[in-house]
Amino acid sequence: MQPAKPVPKDDKQAHVCPWCGASNTDYVQRGYTGPTDESDQYFTCNSCHKVTYQLISRTTRQTRLGRYRVGGIFKDSKHQTKYRITRMLKVGFDEYLLHLKPIPGDDDSDSA
Hints:
By secondary structure, this protein is mainly β. The chain has one domain. The protein has a 6-stranded antiparallel sheet. Mean pLDDT is about 85; it is low at about 110. It has 1 helix and 6 strands.
C-alpha cells in the first residue's frame, strides 16, 4: 500500500496548525478511492511536523475498549497530542467515525 498523498491546497482548504499557528500544511482526505487509501483524515504541519487529525476511524471493538464518547479525550500517543471528541457517527456495519478537536498546550494531567 502506498502512503497517502496530500490533496492540493486551495483557499477553501487553508488549515492553520493548532500546535504552532503556521499555515504551511498538507491536507490528507479520508477515502478508499482516488489518490489516497486512507481511513483517517488529517493534515500535517510543515513547520512543526505534527499531525492534526480531524476524523479517525475505529471499529466497534476499538470504540468500546477505548471508552470513546462525545466530550471525552482521545490521546494520540504516537504524535503526543490530545483531542476532544466532538461527534461520533456509526457508519457501516463495524465502523465509527470520531470527529476530533485538538487541545493545544494541554498537558497529560487529566485522564479520559
